[in-house]
Design brief:
globular, 12% strand, 382 residues, alpha/beta, 7-stranded mixed sheet, binds pyridoxal-5'-phosphate, two-stranded antiparallel ribbon
Length: 382
Amino acid sequence: MQVPFYRHSLSPENAQLVAKVLETPFLTSGPIGKEVEAQLCEYFDVNHAKLVNSWTNGAVATLLAMDIGPGDEVIVPAMTFIATANVVELVGAKPVFIDCDPDTLLVTPDLIRAAITKKTKAVMPVHIYGQMCDVRAIKEILPKNQKILIIEDCAHTFEAKFKGERPGTYSDVAIFSFYATKNVACGEGGAIITNDANLYERLQQAILHGMSAGAADRFNTGQYKHWGMEHLGTKANLPDLLACLLPEQIKTVDKRLGIREEISQRYESALMNTKIRVPKVLNDRVHSRHLFPIYVGGKSRDKALVALGEANIGATVNYRSVHTMGFYSNKYGFSGNEFPSSLSWGNGTLSIPLFPGITTQEQEYVIDVLVNKIDKMIGENK
Ligand SMILES: Cc1ncc(COP(=O)(O)O)c(C=O)c1O
């Protein structure tokens, strides 16, 4: 049997949605994107939403809109995808890495507090794998005499909740990814949500080179209007050709979450009596079950990846600790031993298939290989 790491749920029928866009004058951002933005405002109960062409470009635009740049520091977890730190570098600011909780892999208020300096301009909690950080507690520990913005990295979550509340409730801004494998996906894409009207105003410009009016808006009175540019921006808007794939997925994301939860719980109970460890799921939050990472230990991880490959099971690594990447260790002189929880998890983890279309037979096969092959490979000394 062959089990891919991921199989998306879009079908050739979705081509009709793209065909409809081709009938309109604007192939780029236009009326469909605006409808999706309204849908996002309703789903997250926020005032403003902006579609972007990736989490990464949306985050660069956000940092530009916040005037974060050289001389500024942004606190980021070491246990995340490199993009979280890279965007800080891209605007010329310094990512200040912190460790994570060893059980949940989430950043905690205490870890953040210890990393704050006079140069700190923002903190980027990552809801890793789909479980939300306690953003409310993070907000409470931020100094009252210094403006530190909270940017939620929601690349792994759309439908998660913390004590009944969705992303965007306690932060200044939350940024999502609609990359091909995400729970809501359109190939490449993302969205930014905020309740801050001034920030939204700046964001609209920051995603379009800093221009004061987008292509559609420049013509909407029927008369050409000049635009200006007061601040530097990038190009991060999402075209309607991709935005059209989103409305139906947003409508049905909570239904698919039920399936993701069932699959995840089946893995969890099957692995309970093995040496394989999984991140702790906290019972005061709804986990969006984006990825299913397991910990097999640093000595076994690469062998386990080979064994899974030989068994035709798609597996990947989410993630090696960012501070061990050559760019960051060279630039900031990390020895590699910093951030022990992130380091240990990053050296010993791998992710197994988790997607709503996985069949029971496929999942049973993955479980069989994990329990009867991978677990046996794990030595005493993980
Ligand atoms: C935690 C995290 N942040 C940011 C990103 C970047 O998202 P995008 O590919 O939409 O730029 C990813 C991508 O997988 C991610 O996992």
